[in-house]
Specification:
A hairpin with a 2-residue loop joins strand 2 (about 15-25) and strand 3. The chain is built from no helices and four strands. It has a four-stranded antiparallel β-sheet, with no helix packed on it. The chain is mainly beta. It is elongated and about 30 Å long.
Length: about 50
């Protein structure tokens, strides 16, 4: 199932809008880290496509 994922960094406020795939309760987008090197602190919102 395809989903639209909005990721907002809690440290610098940078916003990323990605497409992902829901698989076994997880969402895979390929996103690793923010431009400010933040790897853990994000607000994540998903919407079905």
């Amino acid at each position: 199932m395809r989903v639209k994922v909005t990721i907002v960094c809690k440290q610098c406020g940078e916003r990323f809008v990605l497409r992902g795939k829901r698989d076994r309760g997880r969402i895979e987008t390929g996103f690793k880290q923010c431009l400010c090197n933040n790897k853990n602190h994000f607000d994540i919102e998903e919407l079905p496509i």
